[in-house]
Write a structure and sequence with these properties.
By secondary structure, this protein is an alpha/beta fold. Helix content is 39%, strand content 15%. The strands form 4 sheets. A 7-stranded mixed β-sheet has the order 2-8-7-6-5-3-4, with helices on both faces. Strands 9-10-15-12 form a 4-stranded antiparallel β-sheet. Strands 1-11 form a two-stranded parallel sheet. Helix 5 links the parallel strand 3 and strand 4. The protein has 2 domains: 136 residues, Aspartate Aminotransferase, domain 1 (Alpha-Beta Complex), CATH 3.90.1150.10; 248 residues, Type I PLP-dependent aspartate aminotransferase-like (Major domain) (Aspartate Aminotransferase, domain 2, 3-Layer(aba) Sandwich). The protein is built from 13 helices and 15 strands. Bound molecules: pyridoxal-5'-phosphate. Pyridoxal-5'-phosphate (PLP) binds next to helix 4.
């Protein structure tokens, strides 16, 4: 076993060697521009892109023509959200001027920030608060719908806690109300099954580097029929990708994305089952050995390969230091000046202290049983050691309710 072990697959995944192999010829031999329609180099590159388009479409249950290649999920989200808002904006109608949008407070920044920009431009955005379990339900969206709602954008699975929203049900609601439905499926697609028709999705974002493909390539699925979704382009230029995304295609990246989707489709079921067993083993191990431990998010409606655990009575940075042989994420985000507790955990009602002492472990295609054993043992050892230094933990053990203590101010 090589240290440090990698348990941060929700941040990024290694490229599958089969993906790299598929990409290699497109750097040197098949280097043409797919836009070059009048010679063999262009045709060859175009063939690579079109194969990838089919591989992605097959993963999503979509038509090839509905696949738009982008630079990643951030760009896909921007095109989907801003592109739909500008296209379906109402000229002064409704309560909100330009139209009403529904999203959620614990979305990725690549959804929150485009929504916030639209709010500055005269749209009105409702950011739903998830319950303590982190799940957005159809009923919550239904409660927020208005006659002037034009767009709903909700992630399929959360990147920090792995919770799963009621996407097919929310999609059905949107279709009933003739509202465009976008889902950021960056953490879902390629790991869990997608059928854009059965799941009632109009727009879907995904990213290569979360599914064992390369970085800097992504996909936006855009529904073409029942209903045909239209988007206003954000970048003007050569009109590539049906005008949704001008610019010479990243052929190598796209070929890699396609191959990653093909492998995901073939191996998803086996990977899922194996990873769920490993994740459960890790969680069981840690919760059996330690008290004052909380697994964040809904108990069942969670991705099989991801867990987010908070440990009471330990200091967050100390915990990361004690576990430096495990590459994972903490419940703190580094801003320029300070460590901020995760807004996702805060959104669930987790306190600042506990958010800081939270760990996100995300397992992947090559995570082994041995690595899970090792990570479990390291975390238990680290937490136990830190708690030995904690007077508050001693008081807790003596049965004192820490939350009721009135601390003297000096
Ligand atoms: C849910 C979610 N959306 C969007 C992104 C951004 O993806 P990309 O790095 O491809 O721009 C990420 C990656 O962290 C993510 O987890």
């Amino acid at each position: 076993m090589r240290l440090p072990i990698y348990m941060d697959h929700a941040a990024t995944t290694p490229c599958d060697p089969r993906v790299v192999e598929a990409m290699l010829p497109y750097f040197t031999e098949k280097f043409g521009n797919p836009g070059s329609r009048n010679h063999a180099f262009g045709w060859e590159a175009e063939e690579g892109v079109e194969t990838a388009r089919r591989q992605v479409a097959d993963l999503l249950g979509a038509d090839r023509k509905e696949i738009v290649f982008t630079s990643g999920a951030t760009e896909s989200n921007n095109i989907a959200i801003k592109g739909a808002a500008y296209m379906y904006a109402r000229a002064g109608a409704g309560q909100s001027g330009r139209g009403h949008i529904i999203s959620c407070a614990i979305e990725h920044k690549a959804v929150l920030d485009p929504c916030k920009r639209l709010a500055k431009e005269g749209f009105e955005v409702t950011f739903l608060d998830p319950g303590a379990d982190g799940v957005i339900t159809r009923a919550m969206v239904e409660g927020a719908m208005r006659p002037d709602t034009i767009l709903v954008s909700l992630m399929w699975a959360n990147n920090e806690i792995g919770t799963i929203n009621e996407v097919p049900e929310i999609g059905a609601l949107c279709h009933e109300r003739e509202v465009v439905f976008h889902t950021d499926a960056t953490q879902w697609a390629g790991k869990m099954p997608v059928d854009v028709d059965a799941d009632n999705i109009d727009l879907l974002s995904m990213s290569g580097h979360k599914i064992y493909g390369p970085k800097g390539v992504g996909v936006l699925y855009v529904r073409r029929r029942k209903p045909r979704v239209r988007l206003q382009a954000l970048v003007d230029g050569g009109g590539q990708e049906r005008n949704f995304r001008s610019g010479t295609l990243n052929v190598t990246g796209i070929v890699g994305m396609g191959k990653a989707c093909e492998i995901a489709r073939a191996e998803m079921d086996a990977d899922r089952e194996r990873l769920l067993k490993l994740r459960k083993k890790l969680e069981d191990r840690v919760t059996a050995a330690l008290d004052v431990v909380q697994i964040n998010g809904h108990a069942e409606k969670r991705l099989p390969h991801l867990t987010n655990i908070s440990f009471g009575f330990v200091e967050g940075e100390g915990l990361m230091m004690a576990c430096k042989d495990i590459a994972m994420s903490s419940g703190s985000a580094c801003t320029s000046a300070s460590l901020e507790p995760s807004y996702v955990l805060k959104g669930l009602g987790v306190g600042d202290e506990l958010a800081h002492s939270s760990l996100r472990l995300s397992l992947g295609r090559w995570t082994t049983d041995e690595e899970v054993e090792f990570a479990g043992a390291k975390i238990i050892e680290g937490v136990t050691k830190l708690r030995k230094l904690s007077p508050l933990y001693d008081m807790h053990k003596e049965g004192i309710d820490i939350s009721k203590i009135e601390w003297a101010a000096h």
